[in-house]
């Protein structure tokens, strides 16, 4: 159990001063007044030194993992290391859950970006899913961005959804349109 005190507590409605936050396991148990901190003698006390105390932030869309996994057009990094590096940066900004946005394009689209190759996308999907059973600094989740003309990958998308590897799904349309000019 932890008690974070001597800070400004951000709630849904306001910013409270003179309060402390009691955390039991992974959950906020309650918000108490500063003078109640001593009611938790066995809890680890964390002094916020006047800073803000807030719940973790959830980022529902970021392509950042693609950049970490493939920092240069011809370079691919280890996906596990990429996820660990991402979480070090994200947790320092208060992000505790990241929905990594991966694009499910056809093999012939964006082929200059190796991270968008379907085989590499699936490897990253699997790497994100593997984090769910290991201790990590943040929760990694998948935002699947599915290109509507990618009919060859529909079954793989469904399989990933059935295996609880997709946590948010959006559909994209980057098909070229022909316009007539009057």
What attributes does this structure have?
2 domains; four-stranded parallel sheet; 182 residues; Urease, subunit C, domain 1; five-stranded mixed sheet; alpha/beta
Question: What this model shows, in words?
Answer:
The chain is 23% helix and 34% strand. By secondary structure, it is α/β, with parallel strands linked by helices.
The count of domains is 2
Order of helices and strands: EEEEEEHHEHEHE
Whole-number average pLDDT? 90
Number of strands: 9
Percent of residues in beta strands:
25-35%
Given as residue ranges, the uncertain stretches (5+ residues, pLDDT < 50) are none
Largest sheet report? 5 strands, mixed
| Principal-axes shape call | elongated
- Please report the number of helical segments: 4
Q: Structural class per helix/strand content?
A: alpha/beta
Gyration radius, rounded: 21 Å
Question: Which bin fits the share of residues in helices?
Answer: 10-25%
The rounded distance between the terminal residues' Cα atoms is 70 Å
SSE layout:
Layout: E1 2-10, E2 15-24, E3 27-33, E4 44-47, E5 52-53, E6 57-62, H1 64-69, H2 79-92, E7 95-104, H3 118-130, E8 139-147, H4 154-162, E9 168-172
Parallel strand pairs: 1-4, 1-5, 6-7, 7-8, 8-9
Antiparallel strand pairs: 1-2, 2-3
Give the gist of this structure.
With 182 residues, the protein is an alpha/beta fold. The protein has two domains: 52 residues, Urease, subunit C, domain 1; 116 residues.
């Amino acid at each position: 159990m932890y008690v974070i005190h001597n800070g400004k507590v951000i709630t849904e409605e306001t910013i409270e001063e003179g309060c402390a936050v009691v955390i039991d396991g992974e959950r906020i148990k309650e918000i108490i007044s500063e003078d109640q901190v001593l009611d938790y003698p066995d809890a680890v006390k964390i002094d916020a030194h006047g800073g803000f105390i807030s719940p973790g932030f959830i980022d529902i869309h970021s392509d950042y993992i693609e950049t970490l996994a493939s920092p240069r057009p011809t370079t691919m990094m280890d996906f596990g290391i990429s996820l660990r590096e991402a979480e070090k940066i994200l947790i320092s900004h208060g992000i505790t859950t990241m929905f990594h946005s991966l694009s499910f394009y056809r093999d012939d689209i964006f082929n200059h970006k190796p991270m968008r190759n379907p085989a590499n996308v699936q490897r990253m999907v699997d790497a994100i899913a593997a984090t769910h059973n290991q201790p990590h600094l943040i929760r990694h989740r998948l935002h699947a961005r599915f290109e509507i003309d990618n009919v060859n990958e529909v079954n793989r998308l469904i399989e990933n959804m059935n295996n609880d590897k997709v946590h948010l799904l959006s559909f994209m349309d980057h098909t070229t349109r022909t316009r007539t000019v009057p």
